[in-house]
Amino acid sequence: MPELPEVETTRAGIVPHVVGRRVAQVVVRNRNLRWPIPTTLARQLTGQTVNSIRRRGKYLIIDTEAGHALIHLGMSGSLRIVTADEAVKKHDHVDLVLDDGRALRFHDPRRFGCLLWTRKDPLSHDLLASLGPEPLGVEFSGDYLHQKSRGRRSAVKGFIMDSHIVVGVGNIYASEALFRAGIHPKRAAGRISRQRYQALAHSIVEVLTEAIEQGGTTLRDFVNSEGNPGYFQQTLNVYGRESEACPQCGHAIMNIVLGQRSTYYCAQCQT
DNA sequence: AGTGCGGCCTGTCCGC
DNA sequence: TGCGGACAGGCCGCAC
């Protein structure tokens, strides 16, 4: 579910309520996420003050003196600030109860997300160490994409969705960025010019930035930390718009499956 | 090393 | 109304 803009929206929403607070209690109702929630987490996190909350790719990092909680929202996860009396719903797997009585509540129907604990530098954790650069950071550019793509014969859409190439570009924004850059999603990554990669890098930055400004995309169930949807879906040009008219040329938007993921594009504008 | 899948889960929707 | 199957915003781990 959540791509980078949704994770960033979540982070920004929980920071004012969580940073500076002490974790009074950790309530784990179901530890069977993608990886089991470590039994050490509750013991080591309880009593700790949250110093900061960072994002690396689609991971959230909750920093404390004793260690760091790593959270991934997977396909269907969300984090909300809840009041002490708010009823626990199905799939509310974990509460980090804060010292003001409220709680950070982790909800994840499909349980593709995770909640891990590490005492070392979280950026060197196995899951984070090999991640590619942040698309909104200084290392990311068209030149970088062009250089990394040489010799690759697989489709450019999968290439930009590979978190070891660049983090945070999921299925929706991959289709949207390729549309904006005029690149066909099936084109071999290694056979795209430096100039076109510059357009693509620009489109990725643009689409992610705009999505963050609009609070992310809600197609079915994304909610921010206050339980509200995002508004970027109104801005989507191709995603979910099969058979609709291309906003640029009027040609019908196509929907194909690429790498087991549904992919939307305009056959006229994208080559 | 790069590529292509299977698999992890539940919920929803669609056709019969 | 019920049921089977496809599909859904992610991504690791494995075979080749």
Quick synopsis:
The protein is α+β, with helices and mostly antiparallel strands and 271 residues long. It is built from seven helices and ten strands.
How does this structure look, described?
The radius of gyration is 20 Å and the shape is globular. The strands form three sheets. A four-stranded antiparallel β-sheet has the order 1-6-7-5, covered by helices on one side. Strands 2-3-4-8 form a four-stranded antiparallel β-sheet, with helices on one face. The protein has a two-stranded antiparallel sheet with strand order 9-10. The chain has two domains: 4-129, N-terminal domain of MutM-like DNA repair proteins (Alpha-Beta Barrel); 142-265, Helicase, Ruva Protein, domain 3, CATH 1.10.8.50. The protein is built from seven helices and ten strands. The protein has 271 residues and is α+β, with helices and mostly antiparallel strands. It binds a DNA duplex (16 and 16 nucleotides) through helix 6.
